[in-house]
Amino acid sequence: MHESVAESSHISKIHHASTKEQNGVHESQHEKVLSVTADGIIQSPDFPNTYPRNTVIVWRLVAVTESSRIQLTFDPRFGLEDAEDGICKYDYVEVEEPVGGVVLGRWCGSEMVPGPQVSKGNQILIRFVSDDYFPSDPGFCIRYSLLQQSQSEPEAPAVMPAWMQSVDVLSEAVAGFSTMEEVMKYLEPERWQVDMEDLYKPTWQVVGKSFIHQKKSRGVVDLNLLREEVRLYSCTPRNFSVSLREELKRTDAIFWPSCLLVKRCGGNCACCSHNCYDCQCSTTKVAKKYHEVLMLKHRAGGRGLQKTLTDVPLEHHEECSCVCKNDSD
Fold first, then answer.
1. Where are the residues of the annotated region Disordered (predicted)?
2. Which of 54, 118, 177, 204 is the most buried (most CB within 10 A)?
3. Per the domain annotation, does 195 fall within a domain?
4. Of 148, 173, 200, which residue constitutes the final position of a domain?
């Protein structure tokens, strides 16, 4: 079908020279382009039934004016093939900012419905991908609508990207996270899921011995376990053997057993803040616990030993923390 120059010139310049128009949708070999003038919907094929296998569809939504923004709202009925290890690898729907190729989110599974998404400019991309296996239902349905950008609306303060921060600031921020996912979200909030997946793709130019000898794969290697291993040797409550005579400062008695295990703070504080000169492992929560022991004391006048079972209080450390004790403190 032949299009007039006025209808197709703008679209063909941006996308593909060979396009056709049907029901207001410009279709090219690579993507479907929708001119957004009112509310509408985009959905996976056959929604709310099982979508087809081996499918790739890309929709480009273009608002009619530069000042317009596009809001996407997902239907509560949402279900694609489940993620593997928390990453949507196989079937997924993805929302992307065309300028810069920033991925706003990638979703799959059925446990959580994606929240609303708003474009930063007057365009937004939606990409649906399914592979050859395990198609699910109901798929997805997205309602799109126009938002008018207020000219007087104050701009949100710019947040410095992680890659622009100094090594010291970045190091201290990363050290505070407890999982690899939190680290990646901080470093690349727009595309952290993609980066997580890329981490486990072998690159032979830089791959280490761990890949060759341990058959490195996403299902075997969990970098979060490395942090757990570090925690075991860092400042934590651990078992210590203490002498009851020394602990209770009793020189007039003999105890059996003479030593008991108690929880005391121990381990290194090598991972303290970079600007701390003296970092010590200190207790932040203490509990007093009673232990039943046999106590022996000499009777008055040297007439044998007095034997009694008694409860002795011992201090146990339940929580520990690395405390900075600089010279100025």
1. 1-30
2. 177
3. yes
4. 148
Please report the pLDDT score of residue 217 as a whole number. 46
Mean pLDDT per 10-residue segment, the chain (329 residues) = 34 37 44 89 94 93 89 93 88 89 88 88 93 92 84 56 69 71 79 74 50 46 62 81 87 83 86 73 91 80 75 91 69
Q: Is residue 35 located within the same domain as residue 105?
A: yes
Compute the distance between CA of residue 283 and CA of residue 236 in angstroms, rounded to an integer: 9
Residues 129, 40 share a domain: yes
Q: In the sheet where 141-148 sits, what is the strand order?
A: 40-43, 141-148, 68-74, 117-118
Which residues, listed in sequence order, are joined to residue 33 by a DSSP beta bridge?
26, 60
Phi-psi region of 245 (alpha: psi -120 to 50; beta: other; left: phi over 0): alpha
Count other Cβ atoms within 10 Å, centred on residue 172. 15
Sheet hosting strand 279-298, strand order edge to edge: 254-256, 279-298, 305-324
CB environment 29-57: b (16+ within 10 A), e (fewer): eebbbbbbeeeeebbbeebbebbeeeeeb
**257 neighbors 275 (Cβ within 8 angstroms):** no
CATH of the domain at 253: 2.10.90.10
